[in-house]
Amino acid sequence: MKPITRRRFLTTGIVTVAGAAGLYGAERIANRYGLIPPDAATWYGPGETLDYDVQRIFGRNALAREFSPSQITHPPFRNELGPPLPAAYHQFQQNGFRDWRLKIDGLVSNPTSFSLSEIHSMPACSQITMISCEEGWSYIGEWTGVPLSHLLDLAGAKPNATYVVYRSIQPDDWWDSLDIFEARHPQTLIAYAMNGKDLTMRTGAPLRMRVPRQLGYKSIKFINHITVTDDIKRFGDGMGSSGPAGGYAWFAGE
Ligand SMILES: Nc1nc2c(c(=O)[nH]1)N[C@H]1C(S)=C(S)[C@@H](COP(=O)(O)O)O[C@H]1N2
Ligand SMILES: [Mo]
Question: Are residues 185 and 87 in the same domain?
């Protein structure tokens, strides 16, 4: 007999619940406990939902693996830069990013924006974790920054917040989101340094999101705007990120 895996067990559980409560009941339970990823209606639907639920039910607080300094990949994998950066970015860059601000708005009691030097003076956190690209490569690096949770507290994120939307200067229509558990997970950082040095243009200067429990594409570079919300459907086409239309599932964990 095959051993029952955690995943098989959960599938059986969901089917059992759905059978007992009816599909409508199951959906209500899933909505109530935030078990449906925002892009569940796409072709990622069933598989993604199951992975997401396993993660939410069994691994909400699980930590991404951390490595020792000797395991850091030298040199780090050289990724391509993606679409060209706007002229505004180069202006910030020429000025040493002194004028860069990270805005936080939405469901917060104190909408605000932080300068880079304010962020640098906050309690810092470092993690040596692996960044994995959906294209198949990965490397280990040390990222330093401020836990996103700390910024959410400073801005006074309301207790009914369910998602955190984040945007990059490059390009303007590239955005993503995390559910509030991932956003408040202790390893989710707003990073400003990698391997002990300030981020460079290639690695996302001056600030990047670092979400070590999910694939690299959630770790958006050049971020300048965070919006807290209780209604992710109001953003873009309601899928939780700009990715699903282009082939990138919203939930990129395992
Ligand atoms: N703004 C922006 N963020 C981005 C990307 C990008 O092209 N632009 N690439 C993403 C992808 S697909 C991956 S895998 C990681 C790679 O991070 P790295 O270049 O530091 O290795 O950055 C992510 N963040
Ligand atoms: Mo990637």
Answer: yes
